[in-house]
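Contributing: when you submit paired examples, paste them exactly as shown. First protein:
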Amino acid sequence: ERSRGLGDVYKRQVPGSAKGWMLMAAVCKTQKDYSAGVYALEQTIRLDDNAPLKAFLNRAYLQVKAGEKVNRIFFGLDQALIRFPHNVAVLNRAIALAGDHQAWARADFYWQQVPAEVQQQANWLLRRAQMSAARGDERNAEEYAKESLSAWQTLPKTKQKSAAMRELKGRIDSVLVAQE
């Protein structure tokens, strides 16, 4: 409560402050008052033509936590993509949300906006394989999983040995085994 009070004081001293609303959103997130956090971030975005990317990403996160309708969350992510075209962090969040809600046409729409060089990375090819499998497209799931493995194999040996890349390889292998 004390933190929220400080946020209110800041907003009174600096009326129309996007920064004040951003601070308020952080407090709301900490207090798990997700709907209030969404409102605060909407004010941030409304007041600041140069609102940072994290305002949009945090709003989407809080919207999910608040249980908002998926189309409203997509609308917010679309706003972010207007301001930050082809931003991989926004597209990552949008594709994940589309997959979670089996909105395959939406997922494809977002996938087409991912820069070509990113689409060819092992982790993105794996994601495409997993989404293909989830929609029942086994042929493409296997193809993307094989492409993911090929992309992984082109990584420098030192990178392949990292924990994150070994974990990625395990997930690729899991998809390939599931396709057999």
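Second protein:
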Amino acid sequence: NNVDLVVKGSDADIVDVDSLNYQYVLFFRVIFNGRFVKRVATGIKKHIDDPEVTRLFILCHSNGLNFTFKALKRLRKRGQLGDKPIIVVSLSGCARRTINTNDATEVHNWFTRHDGALKFAKYWPVPGMGSFGLSTYRGKSDNVVNKNISAHIQDLNDWFKINKLPVTILKFNELMKAYS
């Protein structure tokens, strides 16, 4: 999992990574993967309930952003979001650019205008998928911080390439320290 590379190299105290397994046809796995959303929600809830955790940083890449917001919505509907700050960091997020982000305390949209996969994603016939990480957020929520990183990142997986990964980790660490 590429997100593993960032969080394990970061200064995070607790690291819990979940990834979608694409063993089957992508289209059907994404559409019918309610179990994955439940699994993500369970992982988030574990940290919400942990008295040692004072705030959650959720690092999402690509369609992980869509699944994270579905998981947060699931927790909210069950009254399980708690009161800890939840900071979502999106690396080339693949969700609708108008998605309701209010289930998170703050969302950092690190976007690149060069991402070909996200240019195509807005046309995918998959619920919730879109081009969130291609440009600025366009929804009604006021908790999104947009950061154009087009000079650093050119495509969907640039974040994790050997020559880009140290900067990705540095940016994530800087953001976490800003909340200390």
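If you have annotations for the second protein, write them as plain sentences, like these:
The mean pLDDT is 85.
The helical segments are 2-9, 26-31, 34-49, 64-77, 116-121, 165-178.
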